[in-house]
Input
Amino acid sequence: MALTISRSTENDQQIITLVGELDGASAPQLRDEVEAAAGENPKRLVLMVKDLEYIASAGIRVLVYAKQKMGAGIDIYVVAAQAQIVDTLQKTGVDRSVYLVDNYDSASVNG
Output
């Protein structure tokens, strides 16, 4: 399944929703969205991935890039990841630089 990406802003937070498969062909799309999100100087980056079915190594590299691009002071949340996505993030160590959460309410998070 092709990747669909949408981005929005809520309470000084950039929210990127991913649906489908994040592979080598679609990773540049996400990288572009991360760059655009970083340009908004958000307090945090939230990746809504409930409907993300697959993440390839190219997608992992974009997550690492996102952490570098956002900087140490900006938290990245990965929300509602399926078990296979969580497993991949844990095996690659990316889970140590992002917050893996089941639910996220942008209105309830203090900036």
Remarks:
- The longest helix spans residues 57-70.
